[in-house]
Design brief:
This protein has 285 residues and is of the alpha+beta class. It has a single domain, classed as Jelly Rolls (Sandwich), CATH 2.60.120.620. It is built from seven helices and 13 strands. The longest helix is centred in the first third of the chain and has 17 residues, at 21-37. It is globular and about 55 Å long.
Length: 285
Amino acid sequence: MGPLDDVVDLDRYPLDRPDHAAYRATVDAARQGLAVDGCAVIDGLIGERGLTVIGREITERKHRTHYSTEVINPYFHTTPDPDRPDRHPVNTFLERSSGFVPGDAWEPATALRQLFEHPALCRFLADCLGLPELHPYADPLAGLTANILDPGQVFTWHFDTNEFAVTVLVDEADDGGLFEYVPNIRSGQDEGFAAIQRVLEGDRTGVRTLALRPGDLQIFRGRYSLHRVSRVSDRSRPRHAAILAYTEHPGVIGRVERTRQLFGRVLPAHLEAERERVRSDPLLD
């Protein structure tokens, strides 16, 4: 495993020294952000050297990107529900146009995969989330990915299927490509349909916009917070972000339908996991 200092700014964020005061301060600040609105940003966790290497790795693998354009509701469904009214989140469809570099594009020697799997990063993220431990998401396609938004593309309002997401902005757009979210708009007991519909129809009340910069690491509870990445301008350079997915238990594999939507294919591991899956909550997804 390559040293963390090839990628992480360890002077500022000593992930290899969990007893260090700076480590504890960073964890405490992240926990506070997650408790308040389900979002924490660690500014500049990835240093300039790491950004250069990871940016090059994404560019070299960009030909592996699976692009798709579709109109979806916030739950990634593409067909209306005749039992719901027209002005309802389930029946409100917006454009999603983006791409993903799949997990099987990242060889073991790449800096991004070594960062993703590094025990010190896993421990740090678990500490930020107040969990006893975290494991790299075992999904062979969705565990480690890069999200690509080329000029003109948008990742519309949606919810995640997992409890939290870890993202590193690598290349920012010149115009557009902003991360926006409405914290805790739904819960495990209330879908929050009325509030969600207002956002889908353009109401900006409660919408927060993050001023992310390259190298920032974001921990986000996207299961309960509606979120999107706004459209990248036609005149802009692309927006590239690394997505590092983790689970509380080892060996977790993603759902067949969502995997096929995002990557255009599934593998035998997905089919086997689908047969054995048990839902964790009743929320739409």
